[in-house]
Model the fold of this input.
Amino acid sequence: MADGQLGTVRCRIEQFVGPSSGLCVRRQRLRFVRSSSLAKRRESLLVDRYIGLDLGGTNIDYTVIEVDPGETRPTVVATDKVRTRAHQGPERVRDRLIEVGKKLTAEYGSVVGVGVGVPGLFDAQTGAIEFLPNLPGPWEGFSLGDPVSEGIEAPATLINDARAFTLAEGTIGAGADAKVMLGVTLGTGIGGGIMIDGSLHLGAFGTAGEFGHQTVDPNGPVCGCGNHGCLEAVAKGSEIAKAAGVENAVAAYTAAAEKDPRALDAIAHASYFMAIGIANVVTVFGVDTVVLGGGIMSAGDLVLNPLVSALHARLTLVPASRVTIVKAALGVKAGAVGAALAARSQESDSAKQLPVIGRSIGEE
Ligand SMILES: [Zn+2]
Done:
């Protein structure tokens, strides 16, 4: 997704009260990846288990991932979705997130953490929502992190959905072998994220990776963020569709493939600016892999081909032949998997701090 935010924020419950008893649990529709090995892992107390919840305007996609002792790559144990029912408002949506989490812990056992992918802006200190453009209702200032943590009885981590996409694709998806990866989501808006040496790069303010909000046309149209000529303002799906005179961006790419002159112009225009945006990031960060996802990528090569040509024309200092541009591999589950991975990386960051505390105590 597009607008906003901001790294991750972790919300801890004050007291860990343990699993609820007497909870009525109905079995969910869940797809088991490897049911026999899952059964073995569930017997082990050493498996670290995380829940990922990807909050979207239509669906809440969810996942359970597990990491075996000594392993770094997680196993996706289950993925599925429920309707968000966003029209029912923030309280009900928050309750549904908690409901899904509680059912998953009842089904799979307790979890080390839960990650929530958020399609917008949130306060990295408090876990309160600042801006959710695609969900109706009074979300501004609505507390999400702490109530979810308390409801599911596990530490909760919020992450922007485009950063969650990037983290998932860069860990077990199309960018898993990358040294430096740029993740881009092309949908209602243009989102992004950067992975360096296997870690999500969030920068000093927790906001790094806002690929769609770099200026590519100084005198361009005003963006939703207030800046002029952001990449998102000139190349988002609705702009492509408007310029091509069709219903949506995928239709524009299809029409361009049939040599429709207006659609060809619209695609060339969007690809020109997208290539500027990608080339900027590749040149500054030394990106070796660009992973493109989001709804528009259902047009596949129709999006990739003109973009690759435009990009090769613009890259000079970095050999274009060594920059791989690929379609995302994980599909719609990337957001939920990335949210679970965000919870896991918060947990390992906390663990890393423990020796520092121990050492300072020992020095006294
Ligand atoms: Zn902007």
